[in-house]
Design goal:
The protein is mainly α and 163 residues long. The protein has helices spanning 3-10, 14-24, 26-35, 50-58, 65-70, 79-98, 100-103, 131-138. It has 8 helices and no strands.
């Protein structure tokens, strides 16, 4: 048994996952199949087996409609765009380090925002919370569940008499 067959046995449910993808992104899959000369209505026949469609969907390229549908936030940025942003950030940071601000470690430049990434300087609220409000927010003011009474035992595990 080769590694691919072993992986397939470890990861069952390919068709179940695939039907979910078809339900969520049907038109994108149909468009990509048309570009390949195939039709989704042929699924389950010798023209397009379930395995064929699974391989097509799992190996979709960044320029396909399915990739754009599954990655709506990041599909516009290619590898070149990401690398260019890294280079630009490095140049900006290098210039900042040579400046008076950089030598005093203040006014650090912000990196170019990447798609799909949350800003790291996100703040929550506008000020300090009262202790009771913070405890409510954290869920600490929840009444504990009633505990069952536990009878005391001696060193041998026998119940002690209580009066």
């Amino acid at each position: 048994m080769d590694e691919v067959q072993a992986q397939e046995r470890r990861d069952p449910g390919g068709i179940a996952w695939l039907t979910g993808v078809i339900d969520d992104h049907r038109s994108a899959i149909e468009f990509d199949l048309i570009k390949l000369g195939l039709r989704l209505r042929w699924l389950g026949t010798d023209l397009l087996t379930w395995r064929d469609l699974l391989v097509i969907v799992q190996n979709t390229f960044t320029d396909t409609a399915l990739y754009r549908a599954m990655n709506p936030d990041s599909w516009q940025w290619s590898l070149s765009d990401h690398l260019l942003a890294v280079v630009a950030d490095a140049v900006i940071t290098g210039n900042w380090m040579q400046s008076k601000d950089g030598q005093r470690n203040r006014n650090r430049p912000k990196p170019i925002p990447r798609p799909g990434q949350e800003p790291q300087d996100k703040t929550y609220g506008s000020g300090a919370l009262e202790l009771d409000e913070m405890a409510d927010w954290l869920g600490w003011n929840v009444e504990p569940a009633p505990t069952k009474k536990v009878r005391a035992r001696d060193a041998r595990g026998r119940f002690l008499k209580t009066t």
